[in-house]
């Protein structure tokens, strides 16, 4: 008995040390992935900075020009800061695929061998969903909102929009829409870990419709119901797609 107790006492510190080393290895791996992403972000930002004039004129300011909105700068260094923010935002969007790839690589050790082969596919579809949301917001949602804002109200009141408010509006809509378009991938992940099933998603469909309509009202700055419906409709479609994704994911898991 004394020998056994002595062996257990020796084994316990060794086990705790192994757990600590395992945790430190995870931290080191996380640090490495973060450094890779930051380096990629900096390089992308430098490249974007080389084309910032074309980016500002042909992409960032294009929706306002098409809607005949008058933009103005109210700060002494407003335009230099604006250019920096546009470069950072653009570099962040372009870095997203690389970031997602590094994220999947980080969680690879926790996956089974048959799941690791899906890293490339998961990166592709996660990126695709996010960029699809970005394109939808830029080409459909934002133009409709800006046109409504430009044509609403009295003709006596001039709509001179602060450029920083315009940047904030564009950024919120792009990020929110890109994130919302990740619903199918989120459904896949939650189904894989057992937190969501197709039955649960179907059960709370009506509740989700109400929440989506509220979300559309909150995220669309204009009170225009058309813009809110334009924003809500693809989310409702994505919810139905998420149910199908959850169904096939659960079916494959059960096999």
Name the descriptors.
2% strand; 255 residues; mainly alpha; two-stranded parallel sheet
Write the layout of secondary structure elements.
Elements: H1 2-50, H2 52-60, H3 62-66, E1 70-72, H4 78-107, H5 113-116, H6 119-151, E2 160-162, H7 163-180, H8 183-192, H9 198-203, H10 205-219, H11 225-254
Parallel strand pairs: 1-2
Describe the structure.
This protein has helices at 2-50, 52-60, 62-66, 78-107, 113-116, 119-151, 163-180, 183-192, 198-203, 205-219, 225-254, and strands at residues 70-72, 160-162. The longest helix has 49 residues, at 2-50. A two-stranded parallel sheet has the order 1-2. The chain has one domain (2-181). The model has no long low-confidence stretch (mean pLDDT 80). The protein has 255 residues and is mostly helical. α6 runs antiparallel to α11 (225-254).
